[in-house]
Amino acid sequence: MTYRLEKDTMGTVEVPESAYYGAQTQRAVNNFPISGLKPHQALVRATVRIKKCAAIANMTTHRLAKEIGDAIVKAADEALAGSFADQFVVDPFQAGAGTSHNMNVNEVLANRANEILGGTRGEYARVNANDHVNMAQSTNDVFPTAMRLAALELAHELDNELRDLSDAFARKGIEFDHILKSGRTHLQDAVPIRLGQEFSAWSIAIANNRSGIERTFAGLRELGIGGTAVGTGLNAEQAFIDLVVEALARETGQELTRGESLVERMQNMDPFVALSSSVKGTAVNLIKIANDLRLLSSGPRTGLGEINLPAMQPGSSIMPGKVNPVLPEVTNMVCFQVMGCDLTVALAAQAGQLELNVMMPVIAFNLLFAMEILKNCLHQLTTLCVTGISANEERCRTFLDQSVGLATVLAPSIGYAAAAEVAKESAKSGKSIREVILERGILTEEELEEVLAPYPLTTPGVHGKD
Q1: How far apart are CA 88 and CA 80, in angstroms?
Q2: What residue stretches are annotated with the Fumarate lyase N-terminal domain (predicted)?
Q3: d(CA 120, CA 111)
Q4: Which CA distances in Å does 2 have to 15, 283, 451?
């Protein structure tokens, strides 16, 4: 590899000749070989959009020469189209506040803009990373703004996957609505429920989680860009602040506004804590649902076996024919990781001091990572698992007939004491509640079928009592 020498305020640095980034990015690469990971592309896109819109705003105020501004905008558009993806190289675990990430983007766009104007990489005679690409900005207002834009982008993608999962559960709720089965509380027999009601409940739970996530969007849409170093707007014209927010709203299609206090927007990580907490709450629900799917599909001979999950892959390297519930399993693992990410976000959010929270890079990494893996997992869970679930109606009916929970159903018809005697005989003899009722002549077959009618039995009311 050949290198070029670049100079910054600390001296000279060797930078790969082919690189679009420059000296400050190279220093960060040398200083922070921590995780081997690269910044999330949503964060990169958001930062590039800020640079593009800042150039547009600075040209509008005539602070930035049109020729230079146009070159920056063109370089940004190229980056947004996918060029230079390998040039954003700073580890997510880096210097506080995200200065290295901000400079990485500044340098890539500056070098490309210089090329557009006929210059070469590493020579900033025409377009300077600090003076032009970063004009009227600071890392301290750019990075939290980029976090907001990236979080909104991924949150909308996550919302789409949650909607699809909720809809898939709702469709299964309709498909299975006629199937009566034994309910279970404390993992013990309980009164009957329809299989469709279980699936419909999951649909509603996910819909409620969607609403919780959407309620956090308002805080994310209030930007602090233009606050520069500490939120006071030093070196940013008043007109620039409004213009850059308007440009970002057009660029992203989001209803973005200027924060009431740019100082507050810089200090507090509340919107990210709220979003992360809502994503964690979604993960908590999903863990419960995934566990339910695993329980209901357990077997095929020695478990509950009331539903069948699509077979995805061999389940064992030693047991032939074994098939495991791999999609609910990976959902659990992803959700555990999401919950861990939320704890990191909370710890980092409270670790800010005075005018700045320098822990923003780790907040951004964990929040974006959590939403990325969750949305990807949900897509697989919905398309490869939930949509293909089938019901074992006979198995559901067998468990229902054997369930001592039926005694509760019979109590209004035959009395609590008689129902208790039936339940005790069923438990002692191993006979089903149905068999005991018929053998004792308490109810006829027709009367029993009427008592066990699926819909009246699983809706409010006192069934079987005149």
Answers
A1: 12
A2: 11-340
A3: 7
A4: 9, 48, 84
The one-letter code for the residue type at 245 is: V
Asked if the model's pLDDT at residue 51 lies above 70, the reply is yes
What integer is the mean pLDDT of 291-299? 98
Q: How confident is the model at residue 465 (pLDDT cuts 50, 70, 90)?
A: low
> Which is it for strands 222-223 and 257-258: parallel, antiparallel or unpaired?
parallel
* Catalytic residue status for 316: yes
Q: Which of 18, 35, 211, 316 is catalytic?
A: 316
Structure tokens at 313: 């892959």
Q: Which amino acid is at 290?
A: A
Cβ-contact 259, 224 below 8 angstroms: yes
